[in-house]
Design brief:
- The protein has 257 residues and is of the alpha/beta class.
- It has one domain (23-197, 245-256): Rossmann fold.
- The protein contains nine helices and eight strands.
- It has helices at residues 13-21, 31-38, 59-67, 79-91, 129-136, 160-169, 176-185, 202-219, 224-243; strands spanning 49-53, 71-76, 98-102, 115-121, 140-153, 174-175, 188-195, 247-256.
- Strands 1, 2, 3, 4, 5, 6, 7 and 8 form an eight-stranded mixed β-sheet that branches.
- Strand 5 (140-153), helix 6 and strand 6 form a beta-alpha-beta unit.
- The longest helix is centred in the C-terminal third of the chain and has 20 residues, at 224-243.
- The radius of gyration is 18 Å and the shape is globular.
- Bound molecules: S-adenosyl-L-homocysteine.
- The site of S-adenosyl-L-homocysteine has 21 residues, from helix 3 and strand 2.
Length: 257
Amino acid sequence: MSDPPASIHEFDVSLICAYFAALERQGPGSPAVTVQALDFVDNLSAASRIADIGCGTGGQTMVLAAHTPARITGIDLFPDFIDRFNANSRTHGVHDRVTGRVGSMDDLPFAEAELDLIWSEGAIYNIGFARGINEWRRFLKPGGFLAVSEASWFTRERPEEIDRYWRAAYPEIDLVSTKVGQLEQAGYVPVAAFVLPEACWTDHFYAPQAAAQERFLRTHAGSEAAAELVAAQRHEAELYQKYKQFYGYAFYIGKKL
Ligand code: SAH
């Protein structure tokens, strides 16, 4: 029997960037869900400062920009994503207050208590949820908000196949209730936690990939790594279809005490 396809985490970073740069989103989510999460955040004005951490090409950042007058800084590790982010911000006519910067979420370029809102969709897993919410807190003003989406278990029991897959990909995946507890522990009032609808995975994440995969395979014809990356993404999408009642993403919104 052949080995199961590798997880995305085992691929070359530049290949992953090339694959995802062509997509509007690099993780599960949707404009409607971004707006829904933003509705829990009070008191944003033109004087407010928002950071979107692990912003990717800025799909969700442009939605934030359309719904708040605040100044937004997007931070991502990968320069290609930031180039696209800044092009996006110009296309949307918001480049005077929405700027992408290359940087790492473990070394953020903000001052203590500078931010009114820290946003992060599908990215905090790169340093881990518990570490991220604890380390980022000092950049928030008292009363400031944190809104992050994160892979989460929906049930206490689950089939072995999906349990093993996620423990290898992201061992910090956990129950929604556990993550809400971690928010409290880190000094946030848990304002809301909600599960993202399935369409955030199917219509907004996997469907656009299906079209992009054909183009990617043509561009990287003959590359075994590219073929394996596509196989891994298809495997992930199949697992989602099979096991979506057991896991998905949840949004967590906390207010700094
Ligand atoms: N928020 C976007 C992208 C999510 S994918 C969306 O929802 O579409 C995760 C993002 O985290 C990628 O863009 C990746 O480049 C970025 N990333 C990974 N490690 C990072 C780090 N250490 N610091 C900042 N960004 C990082």
